[in-house]
What does this fold into?
Amino acid sequence: MIGRRTFLAGTGAMLLATPLAAQAQQTGKVYRIGFLRAGPPPSAYTEAFQQGLRARGYTNGVNVAIEYRGTGGSYEDLPRLAAELVRLKVDIILASGAPAAFAARSTTTKVPIVFVGAYDPVEIGLVTSVARPGGNVTGLSQIAADLGGKRLELLKELVPKLRRVAILWDSANLTNLVQKKGAEEAARLLGVDTKSVPVQDPDQFAAAFEDARGVDGLMQMDDPLFITHRGQLAALAIRSRLPAISGLRQNVDAGSLASYGTDFPDLFRRAAMYIDKILKGAKPADLPIEQPTKFELVINLKTAKTLGLTIPPSLLARADEVIR
It folds into this structure.
């Protein structure tokens, strides 16, 4: 069971890769890439990232060595892990999510940082502009308001009598506040009332669902804490008879009703493009922030039946995947 304390992800793989990297150094440069995340990096993300690297001529253990560092979902250890990567003299830090990106940026102004999946990075102060990020940070962003509105629309289709929605968010994560704001704005436009349900620790989940009693549905903000403990959250939502939607398909795999959001493996695959450009001499300050281009709708039909919901055939036809 993964706790809230630090773990080192992919240790075995790195031990195996080290001799290969040593051999590669005899014939050419081996670049070190630090992978920093609050929470265990999902295998779908790391595999997609390595696919993107291979497409550009980089193979882990041959001409690149990836150093994975992550926490059990908390943020407290991110600065220490970022400092550890800097001491390892990594050439680039790949920061999964805004908390990891902030931790890396506060640790170094010299090592290039490529973030993946930060919501509205200009609004939260991670970069100065989309076109010219400035400093040593660039990457691939998310758009909170648009996604929040779309998820709420989908939840209304899933639950036609939807009148009040609980918004579950991690109050320790600044980007959750941005996501929550977008969801609340969308709710006002759609005539749906919202109830804010903040948490910071999995020990607070059960009380949060008690606090959400009386609502018709649940919107779960995208957060490393929630994806780390997705099974627990899915079980609580089903036990509370709450149709839950989020932006992460892993939550649906774990039993939540639906997700609509960015195809994160695609973002990590595209992050390899930034890595390649920077290794070839480009400066992060000059590389514009990219926004997501691929989105996916996933519905868990088994959960819908458990909750007594009938999913409209038109919505099932639009889904990229239906879990039966």
